[in-house]
Design goal:
Layout lengths: L3 E3 L1 H17 L5 H15 L3 E15 L13 E13 L4 E7 L5 E3 L5 H4 L2 E5 L3 E6 L3 E4 L5 E5 L10 E7 L5 H11 L10 E2 L7 E9 L2 E12 L4 E10 L3 H14 L1 E2 L24 E5 L2 E6 L2 E6 L11 E5 L6 E7 L4 E8 L2 E9 L7 E2 L5 E8 L2 E8 L8 E6 L13 H9 L9 E3 L5 E4 L7 E5 L4 E6 L3 E5 L5 E5 L5 E5 L5 E4 L7 E4 L5 E9 L4 E3 L5 H7 L5 E3 L2 E9 L4 E10 L1 E7 L6 E6 L3 H8 L4 H7 L4 E6 L4 E6 L2 E5 L7
Parallel strand pairs: 1-2
Antiparallel strand pairs: 2-3, 3-4, 4-5, 6-7, 7-15, 8-9, 9-10, 10-14, 11-12, 12-13, 13-14, 16-17, 16-45, 17-18, 19-20, 20-21, 21-22, 23-24, 24-25, 25-26, 27-28, 28-29, 29-30, 31-32, 32-33, 33-34, 35-36, 36-39, 37-38, 39-40, 41-42, 42-43, 43-44
């Protein structure tokens, strides 16, 4: 039972006089006051001490009683009643409106329930969460479904939280996507936001009908990367009451934690999975258009750009040799130029003043803090070097690199091809710029991403490696480079002599990656999974141009594989196979225990939804987005780890 206490000694005369004058003026009865106090107690959430109260007669034009709430329909009619002012012992004041007999009552002031409620802790086998002490907890025997609410039930007219175990999950984004799809018709979907200081958990809000009521929902997604499982925490409240419960729900989400998560495992622990030994190695990537540094498997990590502006096209990420700095290229939307920025977790983000190429990555020195980049100029490329510790970031011009320019703009109306270009380069040809151990520079010689050469700044000489080579991967010791010709035939190139050695992959290669020990070479291959799906009906032209960007439109679905070639033994094996459009980047783990690769999904689900005249929400979730996968060549086990792009590893643990 709630306790309503009026401080008798100090305020007796005041309360007596208020009550007496109310009765004298035909004011509210004791029963009306009790109903208003009981209603306020329910809204306030705990016992309180009422220091004093006042009332005034009012007339309102509808049943909102002058305090309308978002999403609630009200009956237009004249309502006579009282405006109440409750002042509590903590000197906080709350306004309530009621009709004459308090059969209809509205709280007009917001109540921060998180500050007034007492909280308890529920400890399940695999998780812990705080909850309001007056609520009931009802769990099934396996604790895979737990309801926490005032009555321990799901009530469309009330508030509550439901915790659901998910046996197979990707990352927090994929968990939220699946939850929204399973929720049925929803509206006003928010964007995913991090939960507290967590780097791997996200929450979003949406509205949906429950019975005859419109509820505000919030879902928190908590993946467990070590077990590939996770939990959803689903919270709900009537839309009009959400603002007063938001802080309580924040506290509950922030308190949720998994109890079986391994915090850290050293590499010397027998039987430690290779991915768990990567906890200290920085992993850079682009998540929701911002640059993040995380560690596998806890992504996304910490963001170092914060605007999520897709027009800036941040890409071409590169770590310094010691893992301290991360550089990247971005488009400046104000003047449509490409700029070079860099940062470290311990320094602020800085921008080099010079304009840079949109396709050439920055190139760190093999040791130290010098960073090379190229600026397009008439007749070639200006190669420049800057020391990132220089307060002025003054760039030194090393010379001009010969470069074939004038390529026609690539046609990239096709959405998967746009994603593929982002991960690679024009037509899948990623540009190369690498600072070699002897001070020379390996670079791409043509604007179509084809052709390789080495430039020596000491004598301004060029060593041509071949006008046909493209899509390369550097050996970790920077002495050999793997690349392919126009037919997808792979070679390793000795960078001292320029000699090529054939690598006999059985199928044409698309993208390459080189294992950290120099022994294993990886190639992605692809072949058409079907004849494609064509949209060419004139009746669909206008809608196709609006939603698909081009007409006629052909959807492509490929079967994609990652093939491992052992350079010592001359053997091959398939370490991953799936379907999609293409693989963008293949990044080997620092401990050689696995691969992270970016998969460009097919647009097939998107096109099928389009042809089925699906609504906007269905189309939104069917739209292809680049995804990161982990695959262990040791076990051939793989899983999706993030809806993100452009992964890059630091191969040394940064000094603390």
């Amino acid at each position: 039972m709630k306790i309503y206490r009026i401080i008798a000694v100090v305020f007796f005369l005041n309360v007596f006089w208020v009550g007496y004058s109310a009765l004298a003026q035909g004011g509210p009865s004791d029963e009306t006051l009790e109903r208003v106090q009981a209603f306020f107690s329910t809204q306030y959430g705990r016992d309180y001490v009422l220091q004093r109260y006042n009332w005034n007669l009012q007339t309102w034009s509808d049943t909102s009683l002058g305090c309308p709430k978002l999403g609630v329909n009200y009956e237009p009619k004249e309502v006579r009643g009282y405006e109440w002012t409750f002042t509590l012992a903590d000197n906080n004041t709350y306004i309530l409106h009621s009709d004459l007999d308090a059969s209809l009552i509205v709280l007009c002031s917001d109540v921060d329930r998180s500050a007034t409620m007492r909280f308890s802790e529920f400890r399940a086998t695999d998780f812990v969460i705080e909850y309001p002490s007056t609520w009931q907890v009802v769990a099934n025997a396996e604790e895979t479904e737990v309801i926490i609410s005032p009555a321990g039930t799901e009530d469309c007219a009330g508030v509550g939280t439901k915790i659901i175990f998910r046996p197979v999950v990707g990352n927090a984004n994929t968990m939220l996507d699946e939850a929204i799809q399973q929720a049925g018709f929803v509206q006003n979907i928010g964007v995913p936001v991090p939960i507290g200081e967590r780097i791997d958990a996200l929450a979003l809000g949406y509205q949906a009908a429950c019975g005859t009521n419109l509820l505000q929902y919030r879902i928190g997604a908590f993946p467990d990367a070590f077990t590939s499982t996770g939990y959803l925490v689903i919270q709900w409240t009537p839309l009009e009451d959400y603002s007063s419960w938001s802080a309580v729900y924040d506290r509950m989400l922030n308190s949720f934690r998994l109890t079986d998560t391994v915090e850290s495992l050293g590499t010397d622990v027998p039987g430690t999975p290779p991915e768990q030994a990567l906890a200290d190695y920085p992993l850079g990537h682009v998540f929701v258009n911002d640059v993040f540094i995380g560690t596998f498997p806890t992504l996304p990590g910490t963001n170092f750009t914060i605007d999520g502006d897709a027009s800036q096209k941040r890409r071409l990420l590169r770590f310094s040799a010691d893992g301290t700095y991360l550089a990247f290229v971005m488009r400046d939307p104000f003047d449509d130029t490409q700029r070079l920025e860099f940062f470290s977790p311990n320094t602020r983000r800085r921008r080099v003043g010079d304009i840079v190429s949109a396709e050439f990555p920055p190139a760190w020195a093999p040791t130290g803090t010098q960073l090379a980049f190229v600026e397009p100029i008439d007749g070639g490329l200006s190669l420049k070097v800057v020391d990132v510790t220089d307060p002025n970031l003054t760039a030194q011009i090393l010379g001009t690199l010969p470069f074939a320019d004038g390529c026609p703009a690539s046609d990239e109306d096709y959405l998967p091809e746009q994603l593929y270009h982002y991960e690679t380069g024009p037509n899948g040809n990623a540009f190369t710029l690498i600072w070699l151990l002897d001070g020379r520079y390996l670079y791409t010689t043509s604007c179509d991403g084809i052709g390789l050469a080495i430039w020596n700044p000491m004598d301004n000489t060029i060593q041509d490696l071949g006008a046909d080579l493209r899509r390369g991967a550097m050996n970790p010791d920077r002495t050999h480079f793997a690349a392919m010709d126009g037919d997808g035939v792979v070679y390793t190139v000795d960078l001292a002599t320029g000699n090529r050695t054939l690598v006999p992959f059985e199928e044409p290669a698309e993208q390459l990656g080189w294992g950290l020990d120099g022994r294993l070479l990886y190639a992605s291959t692809q072949r058409a999974a079907d004849d494609g799906l064509m949209i060419d009906s004139p009746d669909l032209e206008e809608r196709a141009l609006s939603l698909l960007g081009t007409f006629p439109y052909r959807s492509v679905l490929n079967t994609i594989s990652i093939i491992e070639f052992d350079l010592n033994r001359g053997t091959t094996r398939t370490v991953w196979q799936g379907q999609g459009y293409a693989i963008g980047r293949i990044v080997t783990a620092p401990n050689n225990g696995g691969l992270i690769f970016s998969l460009i999904p097919s647009d097939r689900d998107y096109v099928v939804a389009f042809m089925g005249n699906a609504d906007y929400l269905t189309l939104r979730f069917a739209r292809p987005e680049t995804r990161l996968y982990w695959v262990s060549p040791l076990t051939e086990a793989s899983r999706e780890i993030a809806v993100s792009a452009y992964p890059v590893y630091a191969y040394n643990i940064p000094p603390q």
